[in-house]
Design goal:
The complex is a heterodimer. In chain A, helix 1 packs antiparallel against helix 2, helix 1 (2-40) crosses helix 8 (185-212) and helix 6 runs antiparallel to helix 8. In chain A, 80% of the residues lie in helices and 0% in strands. Chain A is mainly alpha-helical. Chain B is an alpha/beta fold. Chain B contains nine helices and eleven strands. Chain B has helices at 42-49, 82-86, 104-114, 120-133, 149-161, 179-194, 206-212, 230-235, 240-250, and strands at residues 2-13, 16-27, 31-35, 57-62, 65-70, 76-78, 89-92, 167-171, 198-202, 215-220, 223-228. In chain B, strand 1 and strand 2 (16-27) form a beta hairpin. The longest helix of chain B has 16 residues, at 179-194. The mean pLDDT of chain B is 95. Classes of the chains: A mainly alpha, B alpha/beta. The A-B interface holds A 114, 116-117, 119-120, 122-126, 130, 134-135, 138-139, 142, 214-216 and B 50-52, 83-84, 86-87, 89-91, 93, 95, 97-102, 110-111, 114-116, 143-145, 159-160, 163.
Chain lengths: 216, 251
C-alpha cells in the first residue's frame, strides 16, 4: 500500500499529459470533423472527393504510423517540412486522425435527418446557415452521441501511443516505474486510472443522452 | 384579386414527365382542392408553387410577382427574390415536419423571430393566440413527438400561420392520420377557410373538397383533366377518368 501511495504522484503527473492531449484533441477534432462532414455532403463533387480521400488515408493507416510520420517524417518533406516538438506533433497527428473519424460520424448524423426537416425550414424562409445551425445540427448531436462517446473513450486509451515519442504520459511513466522497481503494481494502478477516466466520460455522455432524450 | 397564376407548368424527374402542362389560377379567398389518383402529379404541382421542386418549363406568378418564367427558347428563370416570394405561402406537409427538438411554442416562434426578425414578445402573443385558435394552447410547452398526429398537424398549421402568409398550401394534410384524428384537422382547415384564407389543398378527403372548396381540380396523368365548382365535379363529372376515379373512391 505504501508503495502504491509512493508512486501515485508520478502517475498523476503522467495523467496530466494524457489528459492535456485528450482535451486538446477533442476540442479541435470535433469542429474539424463537423467541417469535413459538411464538405463530405456538399454539392461540390471535387470537395466531396478530396475529403473522402482524406478520410480514406487517415482511417486506413495506423495512428501510430501517422504519429511517427508527423514527428520524424515531416522535417524531411521539402518546402512544408517543419520540425515540431513532441507535444505539438502528437496533437497534430491525433487531431487529423480523429477529425477523419468524427467526419464520418457527423456525416452519418446529417444524412439521418429526414428531408422533411429541410423542406419545413425552407418553406419558413430559413437560409442554409440558419437551417443547419438551428434545425439540423441540434438533431444531429442527439443522433451522434453514442458513436462520439465510443470514439472519445477510444481516444483516452489511444493517447498512450505517444509513449513512442518518449513523452511521459501515464503509460510511459508506468512502464518506467515497472522497470525501475521490478514491481508490476504500477500496471494495475494505471489500469485503474484509465478505468476512472472512462467511467467519468461514460457518466458524462449518459447525462447528455438523457438531456437530449427530453424531446422523444 | 389573383393570388396564384400558373401557366403551362412542366416538371420532369429524369425521363418521367410528372406534369405535362398545368394551367390554373387561384383568386383571393378561394379554396382550391386538388384531387386525383396517386402518382398523378398533385403533390408535385403543389411543391412547384413554393419552389420545393424546380420546374422544367412554364410561368408561376404569385400575388402579381413573377416567381419563375420561361422564355421562348425554353430557358427557365427564377426571380432573384424567388425564395422570399415562395415563403409568403405557408405549407402544411403530410408528415407534419415539426422540429422535434423544439417545444410547440418554439416551433411557432422560430421563423417569425429568426427569419422575419419580429419582436419575440409580440410574436409570442400571436403564437399563443394561434394555438388557442387550433385548440392547443395547453400544449405550448410540450415537445411535438409527445402529441398525437392530429395535434401535431394542427401545430404545423399554426406554425405556418404564424408567418402571416397570404396563401396556405396543404399537401395531403390528413393522409398520415388515423381516421378518428382527421376530423380535428379538417375542422381547423374549415375555420381557416371561413376566415377567407386563400388555400390550395391536395387531398383525398372528398367530403372536405365537396363542402369547403370553392373550386375543385381533378389531376391525372400530368394534366388537369377537369375543373369546376364542387357540384359540377362531384354531381356531373364530364371527363371519363374523373368518372372512374369517383366511382372507385365512393365504393
Amino acid at each position: 500500500m505504501d508503495y502504491i501511495i509512493s508512486i501515485i504522484p508520478q502517475m498523476l503527473m503522467g495523467t496530466v499529459d494524457t489528459l492535456r492531449l485528450f482535451f486538446i484533441t477533442i476540442v479541435l477534432a470535433i469542429p474539424l470533423g463537423i467541417l469535413l462532414a459538411f464538405c463530405r455532403v456538399s454539392s461540390f463533387a471535387a470537395l466531396r472527393k478530396i475529403v473522402a480521400a482524406y478520410v480514406y488515408v487517415l482511417r486506413g493507416t495506423p495512428l501510430m504510423l501517422q504519429l511517427l510520420f508527423v514527428y520524424f517524417g515531416l522535417p524531411f518533406i521539402p518546402v512544408i517540412g517543419i520540425r515540431l516538438d513532441d507535444f505539438p506533433a502528437a496533437v497534430l497527428a491525433f487531431v487529423l486522425n480523429y477529425g477523419a473519424y468524427f467526419c464520418e460520424i457527423f456525416r452519418a448524423g446529417i444524412q439521418a435527418i429526414p428531408r422533411g426537416q429541410y423542406e419545413a425550414a425552407k418553406t419558413l424562409g430559413m437560409n442554409y446557415v440558419q437551417t443547419m445551425r438551428r434545425i439540423i445540427l441540434p438533431q444531429v448531436f442527439k443522433i451522434i452521441l453514442p458513436p462520439v462517446s465510443n470514439e472519445t473513450i477510444t481516444l483516452v486509451k489511444d493517447t498512450s501511443l505517444i509513449y513512442v515519442l518518449a513523452m511521459n504520459d501515464l503509460l510511459r511513466t508506468t512502464r518506467n516505474l515497472v522497470q525501475r522497481d521490478f514491481n508490476i503494481m504500477p500496471f494495475v494502478v494505471a489500469a485503474v486510472f484509465y478505468l476512472v477516466m472512462s467511467m467519468i466520460l461514460t457518466y458524462g455522455f449518459n447525462k447528455l443522452e438523457k438531456h437530449f432524450a427530453r424531446w422523444d | 384579386m389573383r393570388k396564384i397564376e400558373a401557366k403551362n407548368i412542366c416538371k420532369k424527374f429524369d425521363d418521367l414527365e410528372v406534369l405535362k402542362s398545368i394551367d390554373m389560377t387561384v383568386d383571393e379567398g378561394e379554396v382550391v382542392a386538388i384531387i386525383g389518383p396517386s402518382g398523378g402529379g398533385k403533390s408535385t404541382f403543389l411543391r412547384c408553387l413554393n419552389k420545393l421542386e424546380t420546374i422544367n418549363g412554364g410561368t408561376i406568378i404569385i400575388d402579381g410577382e413573377t416567381l419563375v418564367d420561361t422564355d421562348d427558347k425554353g430557358n427557365v428563370r427564377y426571380a432573384e427574390n424567388a425564395s422570399q416570394i415562395a415563403c409568403r405561402m405557408g405549407m402544411v406537409f403530410q408528415q407534419f415536419n415539426l422540429f422535434p427538438h423544439m417545444t410547440v411554442l418554439e416551433n411557432l416562434m422560430e421563423a417569425p423571430v429568426h427569419v422575419q426578425k419580429r419582436n419575440p414578445a409580440e410574436v409570442q402573443v400571436e403564437a399563443e393566440a394561434l394555438l388557442q385558435k387550433v385548440g392547443l394552447l395547453d400544449k405550448r410547452d410540450q415537445y411535438p413527438l409527445r402529441l398525437s398526429g392530429g395535434q401535431q398537424q394542427r401545430v404545423a398549421i399554426a406554425r405556418a400561420l404564424c408567418m402571416k402568409p397570404d396563401i396556405m398550401l396543404f399537401d395531403e394534410p390528413t393522409s398520415s392520420l388515423d381516421p378518428e384524428l382527421t376530423g380535428e384537422v379538417l375542422k381547423t382547415m374549415r375555420n381557416l377557410a371561413e376566415d377567407h384564407m386563400t388555400m390550395v389543398v391536395v387531398t383525398h378527403e372528398m367530403g372536405f373538397a365537396r363542402e369547403v372548396a370553392t373550386k375543385v381540380l381533378f389531376m391525372a396523368d400530368g394534366y388537369i383533366q377537369e375543373q369546376g365548382v364542387p357540384e359540377e365535379i362531384f354531381e356531373r363529372p364530364q371527363n371519363e377518368r374523373l368518372q372512374t376515379f369517383l366511382k372507385s373512391i365512393l365504393k
